[in-house]
Write a structure and sequence with these properties.
The protein has 6 helices and 4 strands. By secondary structure, it is of the alpha+beta class. It has one domain: NADH Oxidase. Strands 1-2-4-3 form a 4-stranded antiparallel β-sheet, sandwiched between helices.
Protein backbone atom coordinates (compact mmCIF):
# COMPACT_ATOMS: atom_id res chain seq x y z
CA UNK A 1 0.00 0.00 0.00
CA UNK A 2 1.01 3.59 -0.45
CA UNK A 3 2.07 4.99 2.95
CA UNK A 4 -0.63 7.64 3.36
CA UNK A 5 -3.26 5.05 2.45
CA UNK A 6 -1.96 2.81 5.24
CA UNK A 7 -2.02 5.69 7.74
CA UNK A 8 -5.46 6.90 6.74
CA UNK A 9 -7.05 3.43 6.54
CA UNK A 10 -5.84 2.03 9.86
CA UNK A 11 -8.58 1.80 12.46
CA UNK A 12 -8.92 -0.02 15.77
CA UNK A 13 -10.56 -3.40 15.21
CA UNK A 14 -12.60 -5.10 17.91
CA UNK A 15 -13.90 -8.08 15.92
CA UNK A 16 -11.45 -10.76 14.76
CA UNK A 17 -11.87 -13.93 12.74
CA UNK A 18 -10.58 -16.64 15.12
CA UNK A 19 -10.17 -19.15 12.27
CA UNK A 20 -7.72 -17.07 10.24
CA UNK A 21 -4.25 -17.35 11.71
CA UNK A 22 -1.59 -14.93 10.46
CA UNK A 23 1.18 -16.71 8.55
CA UNK A 24 4.49 -16.76 10.43
CA UNK A 25 6.24 -14.87 7.62
CA UNK A 26 3.88 -11.91 8.12
CA UNK A 27 4.43 -11.91 11.88
CA UNK A 28 8.17 -11.78 11.14
CA UNK A 29 7.65 -8.82 8.78
CA UNK A 30 5.68 -7.01 11.47
CA UNK A 31 8.50 -7.69 13.96
CA UNK A 32 11.02 -6.39 11.40
CA UNK A 33 9.03 -3.14 11.20
CA UNK A 34 9.33 -2.76 14.97
CA UNK A 35 13.03 -3.55 14.85
CA UNK A 36 13.47 -0.82 12.21
CA UNK A 37 12.01 1.85 14.51
CA UNK A 38 14.32 4.58 15.74
CA UNK A 39 15.17 4.79 19.43
CA UNK A 40 17.02 7.37 21.47
CA UNK A 41 20.79 6.84 21.07
CA UNK A 42 19.88 3.69 19.10
CA UNK A 43 19.68 1.75 22.38
CA UNK A 44 16.67 -0.31 21.22
CA UNK A 45 15.44 -1.03 24.77
CA UNK A 46 12.54 -3.19 23.55
CA UNK A 47 11.35 -6.74 23.22
CA UNK A 48 8.35 -7.78 21.12
CA UNK A 49 6.36 -10.79 22.25
CA UNK A 50 4.10 -12.42 19.67
CA UNK A 51 1.74 -14.64 21.65
CA UNK A 52 0.10 -17.36 19.54
CA UNK A 53 -0.08 -20.53 21.65
CA UNK A 54 -3.60 -21.24 23.01
CA UNK A 55 -2.55 -21.66 26.65
CA UNK A 56 -0.58 -18.43 26.86
CA UNK A 57 -3.16 -16.55 24.77
CA UNK A 58 -5.81 -17.51 27.32
CA UNK A 59 -3.70 -16.26 30.21
CA UNK A 60 -2.86 -12.98 28.46
CA UNK A 61 -6.50 -12.40 27.48
CA UNK A 62 -7.46 -12.64 31.15
CA UNK A 63 -5.33 -9.53 31.77
CA UNK A 64 -7.81 -7.42 29.82
CA UNK A 65 -11.42 -6.95 30.88
CA UNK A 66 -13.07 -6.80 27.45
CA UNK A 67 -13.96 -10.11 25.87
CA UNK A 68 -13.76 -8.99 22.23
CA UNK A 69 -10.03 -9.74 22.43
CA UNK A 70 -10.78 -13.47 22.82
CA UNK A 71 -11.19 -14.07 19.08
CA UNK A 72 -7.86 -12.59 18.05
CA UNK A 73 -5.50 -15.42 17.10
CA UNK A 74 -2.40 -13.48 18.19
CA UNK A 75 -1.51 -10.81 20.73
CA UNK A 76 1.53 -8.59 20.37
CA UNK A 77 3.08 -7.29 23.57
CA UNK A 78 5.68 -4.53 23.55
CA UNK A 79 7.86 -4.38 26.61
CA UNK A 80 11.12 -2.69 27.39
CA UNK A 81 13.82 -2.09 29.92
CA UNK A 82 13.92 1.32 31.56
CA UNK A 83 17.56 0.67 32.53
CA UNK A 84 18.48 0.05 28.87
CA UNK A 85 16.76 3.22 27.61
CA UNK A 86 18.45 6.56 27.06
CA UNK A 87 18.17 9.11 29.89
CA UNK A 88 18.42 12.86 29.34
CA UNK A 89 20.40 14.98 31.82
CA UNK A 90 17.21 16.17 33.51
CA UNK A 91 16.17 12.56 34.19
CA UNK A 92 13.70 12.07 31.32
CA UNK A 93 13.76 8.40 30.30
CA UNK A 94 12.99 7.71 26.63
CA UNK A 95 11.46 4.26 27.15
CA UNK A 96 7.83 5.24 26.49
CA UNK A 97 8.80 7.24 23.40
CA UNK A 98 10.94 4.44 21.99
CA UNK A 99 8.28 1.80 22.58
CA UNK A 100 5.53 4.01 21.16
CA UNK A 101 7.44 4.42 17.91
CA UNK A 102 8.13 0.69 17.66
CA UNK A 103 4.49 -0.22 18.36
CA UNK A 104 3.28 2.31 15.81
CA UNK A 105 5.65 0.91 13.18
CA UNK A 106 4.30 -2.60 13.80
CA UNK A 107 0.64 -1.57 13.79
CA UNK A 108 1.13 0.28 10.49
CA UNK A 109 3.01 -2.69 9.04
CA UNK A 110 0.14 -4.95 10.09
CA UNK A 111 -2.32 -2.65 8.33
CA UNK A 112 -0.17 -2.76 5.22
CA UNK A 113 -0.58 -6.56 5.16
CA UNK A 114 -4.33 -6.44 5.82
CA UNK A 115 -3.96 -7.39 9.48
CA UNK A 116 -6.14 -5.67 12.05
CA UNK A 117 -5.03 -4.36 15.43
CA UNK A 118 -6.21 -2.27 18.39
CA UNK A 119 -3.76 -0.49 20.68
CA UNK A 120 -4.55 -1.43 24.31
CA UNK A 121 -3.13 0.27 27.37
CA UNK A 122 -5.96 -0.61 29.81
CA UNK A 123 -4.66 -4.03 30.77
CA UNK A 124 -4.03 -5.37 34.28
CA UNK A 125 -0.31 -4.63 34.45
CA UNK A 126 0.42 -6.65 37.59
CA UNK A 127 -1.41 -9.72 36.31
CA UNK A 128 0.31 -9.49 32.93
CA UNK A 129 3.71 -9.12 34.60
CA UNK A 130 3.02 -12.32 36.53
CA UNK A 131 1.71 -14.26 33.51
CA UNK A 132 4.76 -13.33 31.41
CA UNK A 133 7.35 -13.38 34.23
CA UNK A 134 8.33 -9.79 33.42
CA UNK A 135 11.63 -8.80 35.04
CA UNK A 136 11.68 -6.00 37.63
CA UNK A 137 13.56 -3.59 35.31
CA UNK A 138 11.10 -4.22 32.44
CA UNK A 139 7.79 -2.58 31.70
CA UNK A 140 4.96 -3.73 29.51
CA UNK A 141 4.01 -0.68 27.53
CA UNK A 142 1.21 -1.77 25.25
CA UNK A 143 -0.52 -4.76 23.78
CA UNK A 144 -2.52 -5.27 20.62
CA UNK A 145 -4.47 -8.17 19.27
CA UNK A 146 -3.43 -9.12 15.75
CA UNK A 147 -5.67 -10.90 13.29
CA UNK A 148 -7.92 -10.60 10.30
CA UNK A 149 -11.09 -8.66 10.93
CA UNK A 150 -14.25 -10.73 11.34
CA UNK A 151 -15.96 -8.76 8.59
CA UNK A 152 -13.33 -9.67 6.03
CA UNK A 153 -11.59 -6.31 5.97
CA UNK A 154 -14.66 -4.11 5.73
CA UNK A 155 -13.80 -2.39 9.00
CA UNK A 156 -13.19 1.00 7.42
CA UNK A 157 -15.10 3.94 8.76
CA UNK A 158 -14.86 7.68 8.50
CA UNK A 159 -12.21 8.95 10.89
CA UNK A 160 -13.22 12.08 12.75
CA UNK A 161 -10.21 14.33 12.93
CA UNK A 162 -9.75 18.01 13.67
CA UNK A 163 -9.04 20.25 10.71
CA UNK A 164 -5.35 20.61 9.96
CA UNK A 165 -5.31 24.29 10.99
CA UNK A 166 -6.47 23.19 14.47
CA UNK A 167 -3.56 20.82 15.02
CA UNK A 168 -0.68 22.18 12.95
CA UNK A 169 1.10 25.48 12.72
CA UNK A 170 3.50 26.26 9.91
CA UNK A 171 5.69 28.98 11.40
Amino acid sequence: MEFMTVVQNRVSCRAYDPKRVIPQELLVKIAEAGKAAPSAANLQPWKFLFISTPDLLGKVRECYSRRWIDNAPHILIVKGSRTRAWVRRDGYNSLETDLTIAMDHMILAAENYGIASCWIAAFDNEKLREVLSIQSDEEVFAITPLGYSADGGERRREKKRFDLDQVAEFI
